[in-house]
Specification:
The complex is a heterohexamer, with three copies of chain A and three copies of chain B. Helices cover 69% and strands 0% of the residues of chain A. By secondary structure, chain A is mainly alpha-helical. Chain A folds into two domains: 92 residues, no CATH class; 300 residues, no CATH class. Chain A is elongated. Chain B is mainly α. Chain B contains two helices and no strands. At the A-C interface, helix 8, helix 17, helix 18, helix 19 and helix 23 of A face helix 3, helix 5, helix 6, helix 7 and helix 19 of C. The structure holds sodium ion (3 copies). The site of one sodium ion has 9 residues of chain E, from helix 23.
């Protein structure tokens, strides 16, 4: 009667069971790292990463919770990512492994890059290209800010070549530098493609710095501008017709097809969402993209990214380098945007307030708000918000183009 | 032959920034062209300023009130 | 330090990189078709389908956009399908391939036919069988209209047998003829089953003709009816109790189980949605089916179907034949429905206005509205809308039965 | 032996239309039977016509106004 | 011209086709069971399970519909489960098989246990731990009620050891006994893990008995309490601060990490939902978890569980034993909760009304309402609802801990 | 040696109930500690009782009316 049982369960004395229970506690697993415990990829982990490493990581996720809740650091992404990281660092449970639910979600939509694409659709459906259409030349500011990406790429390879601590491949350096694009889904898309082993650190750096835009950018903006420049008033934006908004996403996509097909997954998804919204005839689809769909995918994406915060992957020197390079990328991008505006003002025509140059990094809409806020510090009647939205959304396109270039180089 | 990463990175930088500006410059040109064509050949009908504006305004106030009420309700 | 890099990236002179970039543009790929580029199935494609074919397809998707937005042609489906088609025709990007996001969505829910099933659930939850229950015999009109399916099947095999241009198998002919069912999810379900290589053309034809019902049907309806027939007033519909509406979906499903189990995936999904709604005790589930769930699936289904609009699959003579046979199917179905109503009027009992016969093709609720509109052209007091809803929903059941028959034949 | 597609198609037509009509005819018979049984044995309670109708009508007007306002809001 | 056809379709005389059609009807399949028809796992089935067994199962699903609609038995779950069961018992259609849509949904999220995890997230986002926080010691009642699980486990092995009719393995006995946890997703999670072959019966028993809590519990509660005990008034609950509610889910998860990592998939998912809600900064995510996401997953989970109601799996003696053991589990759990309250009253301090002990089984919020209702039968001014919510939610945690223990034993 | 299932089940029972109570007891202790710390070091600011309460109440009534109207609308 118990034959088929004996194969799968071995009876044992009650004291042994209690000992077994104690041995299966998390405290025991943290104190006495198991020799045979592997990471999510089936590779061996160091004892530190199985014990104190996990404790430190859990404390780091608490720090993320604090920043997200009390300081308002991109909570929509950082809370799911942080919680995913918390779950991924639980000993013995294997939640981040292939059969754990984080691992299942990861393979459902992150390893194949579906989730960032779907997020991009939703963001596209939330984006208004009106300000850019009414002042097209501000797109150049969104281009200049991409110097944050490529300048950082050079920085990363310099670190690898001339310091003994880091040894990034070109793929890894590229994946890190895309943090300078200040665009979450693009960062995740590229990291998953070129350096999945760095995904956790890159995503956390990307969203954290996007949240810190109000702290990072103002000093740079002020240092690079004169008082007179900051008070430049820009002309009122012209009215943009519905048809212009409708044709624009298709126009950009066609350009991408002709010039850089490797950027079309990102740009295509973004413009799909935007186009559906602008048609005005499928509101139920665009509403769903902007709400139920993007929310569901955000939860899944966050948890899946969080699964890459396992101690053995995050508590490595590379993470420090990524955090360092990330803030350099943001700063360089900000500076490049401001300087580009000053260069544009050397040419004849309507002057551009250089404070909107910083919005070119994207980080929509935070960076545009920062432009507006800094501007109002100097002239309370100078509303730069809508003017800054132009470079802001151009920065999204610019980052996607930059991502396409990197994809095409390594294909 | 040993590859010099820094040289490669600088090449990437020029290529990348070049492509980004090329793309955005073309975008600016074509979007200006598009706007020109649309305003010339497909002008938007002028919204007629009629007495209907008043009730619309009223509607908007109602909507604003409802929206505020609902937002309040969600938070409360 | 660069050992693991050299394996994956080969340094090259800057001029070569620029050349490589130019070689990776879409213009270049369209001008100089790559010899080694394959289609989504890994098969070789003709040079035409890699160059002008793609351009033509992209222009065709623009036409779909125009029809959907400016003419109101089923935008909920044709916009996502069209955009999917646009993305699927981008050279080098491989968005429609197995690792592209369209391909991933296709394999997630279209190749296994899950998406049309889920759409059917949502449509079921939106359907009201009240008008049919209050006048059951109008179901026969929904049966007669299925002649559009089977008549077209004969037409398709005649074309294959007696013209040198076409060579449809019986499976393909059946998949094409289901367009006459005027029911999108059913068409997609059957096409995916019997002839996935024709899916794009069948789906586009199906939704386009459903949108064109107000153009296609009235001439046929008028040609087949006398002025007196068009003025027939139908008796007021009786009240239908909640219990009748609750039992009906189960009743139809049981009939399908007993007579045609092969139709039960479609009928079962439809009646599941309808039953949940009619119970009135799980409104949160039926609301979700009718909104978030069906909207999400519609976006995915549309994109996935669009991935079958790749030039090498769509720009073939078969597509013309499918478009031709599709309109024949709609016309024949419309005529059959009208004639059936006239036949029913030969028998004693309440007379049926033959104008509601055309609604039997389904195309819910467009065809019923057409019946109403044509009727009011002749007598402004003659409201046929609710009367036409009976054959309209019966047409959905009829098409599902026809689909079941075809499935059972080829199983 | 060569299969004649046309003959096969015609066979499918007869089989298919036969099955469709068989199914719908059975559906008509059973749904009539069902309606008969339900009206005979499980009649729906008559909705009482009370003074509550007036407030309900008012509610409906409010709902209509809200719905219109929201629809307007969405499009606007 | 017909060469590629002949391979897949064999022409036949019309009379043979009609015969083939009749042979493909459900009536015929039910009357004359096919020798070669297999179940969803590709195993042979008895003739009874192919014929009358299916008819009986379909009637049982009708009974579930009746209970859900007319009696309000957990319709959100029992309607989808019942409909899934109806579809899974259709002969020839194979809807529950690997290529049928029920099978596809099953493998999408049930065999890997993702669906119950996602439901748990949504339930977590709907849960308010305030009442528990304001009276922590009532958590012990939620612990005592888990005796329903472990007592039943002993009962199940006694049945297996000393009766000739049943032969449950320890895994099966454990999966059955978790019904006593009165928590749907936990039951499904454990059953899928330890005894997937019993999933259908366990899920149906679990949700049915949860629905029957108002019938099962009151007699037991009254039998075990004196009139004076039932009239005990509990002190008003203290106010709980937002910060307490925010820290609590993390606190419980950390405890689970330290003591019982095997319970962290369930507790982690639950606390993730609760934590997101309590932060108050990601309302759009917590709203989606509580609505669109949980509704979609409920539909899928229900249909997938229903696919396990195929006759050959459900119409077996084990099902009767499961139903019997399930009601024992509920009764024992109820009694244990009440008795625990009486034991707590032997100690000094504020007295506990033993009627809230029964709420410790969880079955949120039904069991708490029953406590309230029975209490008001004896003293109309004695509102026990909020007091009973404490043990009620503690019962969810308790069951998840019990589930973790069982998982750790059989790992 | 034959395993006695009943003995095993009883062992599971003691182990399981022990673990459940251990967990919940620790939870009670730590949550009491947490509440103590929070009330001591992070007290919630007293909600100020101001005249703003009245308008809020009004809003709530509006919201309730709207909610009821919408609920009515859905069922109707
Ligand atoms: Na950017
Ligand atoms: Na139809
Ligand atoms: Na429980």
């Amino acid at each position: 009667m118990t034959t088929h049982l004996e194969e799968t369960y071995k009876a044992q004395p009650f004291m042994d069971m209690i000992e077994g229970f104690l041995h299966s506690t998390g405290i025991d697993a943290l104190m006495n790292p198991r020799a045979n415990e592997m990471n999510a990829h089936g590779e061996p982990i160091s004892d530190f990463h199985k014990s104190w490493g996990r404790v430190i990581m859990i404390l780091i996720t608490f720090l993320l919770f604090y920043l997200a809740i009390a300081r308002g650091f991109e909570p929509l992404l950082l809370l799911p990512i942080g919680f995913g990281g918390l779950l991924a660092n639980i000993p013995l449970a294997g939640i981040g492994g292939d059969t754990g639910f984080l691992g299942i979600i990861y393979h459902m939509g992150l390893s194949n890059q579906l989730f960032p694409i779907l997020i991009f659709m939703g963001v596209g459906a939330m984006t208004d290209f009106g300000p850019l259409l009414s002042n097209p030349k501000t797109a150049l500011l969104g281009g200049a800010a991409q110097f944050g990406i490529f300048g950082t790429l050079v920085g990363a390879v310099v670190l690898s070549e001339y310091t003994p601590f880091f040894d990034f491949t070109l793929q890894q350096a590229s994946a890190i530098s895309i943090i300078g694009g200040a665009d979450g889904p693009t960062s995740i898309f590229i990291a998953t493609n070129l350096a999945p082993e760095l995904l956790g650190a890159i995503a956390v750096a990307s969203y954290s710095y996007m949240a810190m835009v109000p702290i990072i950018q103002p000093p740079i903006m002020k240092a690079l501008t004169t008082d007179a420049e900051r008070r430049i008033k820009m002309t009122t934006l012209r009215h943009v017709s519905r048809l212009e908004k409708l044709v624009f996403p298709i126009l950009v996509l066609v350009l991408a097809i002709l010039i850089l097909p490797d950027a079309t997954p990102l740009i295509g998804a973004f413009m799909f969402g935007n186009f559906l919204k602008e048609t005005g005839v499928v509101d139920r689809l665009s509403d769903t993209m902007q709400n139920a769909l993007i929310n569901i995918v955000t939860i899944f994406l966050g948890l899946a990214v969080g699964s890459k915060l396992a101690a053995d992957q995050f508590l490595v020197p590379d993470t420090l380098a990524i955090l360092l390079l990330g803030i350099i990328a943001f700063s360089v991008g900000t500076a490049a945007g401001v300087i580009m505006a000053k260069i544009m003002n050397l040419f004849p025509g309507h002057k551009v307030n250089p404070l909107i140059g910083s919005a070119g990094v994207s980080a929509v809409p935070m960076a545009a708000r920062v432009s507006n806020k800094v501007g109002m510090e100097y002239d309370r009647t100078n509303m730069l918000l809508m003017h800054a939205m132009g470079p802001n959304v151009a920065g999204v396109i610019g980052s996607a183009v930059a991502a396409g270039i990197l994809m095409s180089i390594f294909k | 032959m040993e590859t010099n990463l820094v040289v490669e990175g600088v090449k990437f930088m020029f290529l990348g920034m070049g492509a980004v500006f090329l793309f955005l410059a073309l975008m600016i040109v074509t979007m200006n062209l598009m706007s020109y064509i649309i305003h010339k050949f497909f002008p938007e009908p002028q919204p007629s300023v009629k007495s209907t504006v008043a009730p619309q305004e009223d509607n908007k106030k109602i909507v604003a009130a409802i929206t505020a009420a609902i937002a309040h309700h969600r938070q409360g």
